[in-house]
Amino acid sequence: MPLRTTQDIVLVRQAVRQWTLAQGFSLVDQSKLVTAASEIARNTVEYGGGGEARLESLEQGIRRGVRITFTDRGPGIADLQQALRDGFTTGNGLGLGLSGARRLCNEFEIESAPGKGTRVMIARWK
Questions:
Q1: How deeply is 69 buried, as exposed, middle or buried, from its count of CB atoms within 10 A (0-12, 13-18, 19+)?
Q2: In this model, does residue 18 exceed pLDDT 90?
């Protein structure tokens, strides 16, 4: 899914809600993944200059999950450790986007380098 505008963020939220519902996630787990996806999608648009989100259904034995991978070709993150600290922000927010998203997911991976863009993968299992 393309991520260029705030409307695209809404579309990602809706898609994640539909995918988690289809996987049988509880309302609480749906909300956790939708919230995390919304935060990362917003970062992709606002700080990464836009990019894309890829949704995948996961199956591991009887376990089911949803994975979303966000990529951009923006300026990248110079200091990942600092960016993942609660309260750190380069904008006007509370600085809880990345760290909050990480807490809401079962799996969280981030790769970034200055001038190379950013890739964030989040997943939640039922």
A1: middle
A2: yes
Q: Do 104 and 33 form a contact (C-beta atoms < 8 A)?
A: yes
- CATH second-level architecture of 2-125? 2-Layer Sandwich (3.30)
Q: How far apart are alpha carbons 105 and 5 in whole angstroms?
A: 24
Work out the angle at residue 42's Cα, subtended by the Cα atoms of residues 51 and 38, and round it to the nearest 5 degrees. 110
- Within 13 Å, how many C-alpha atoms sit on residue 30's CB side? 15
CA-CA distance, 31 to 37, in Å (whole number)?
10
Cα-trace Rg, the chain = 14
The string of pLDDT tens digits covering residues 90-109 is: 655 544 578 889 999 999 99
Of 9-13, 73-77, 92-96, the least confident:
92-96
SS3 111: strand
What pLDDT does 93 receive?
56
Task: Give the residue extent of every domain in the chain.
Answer: 2-125
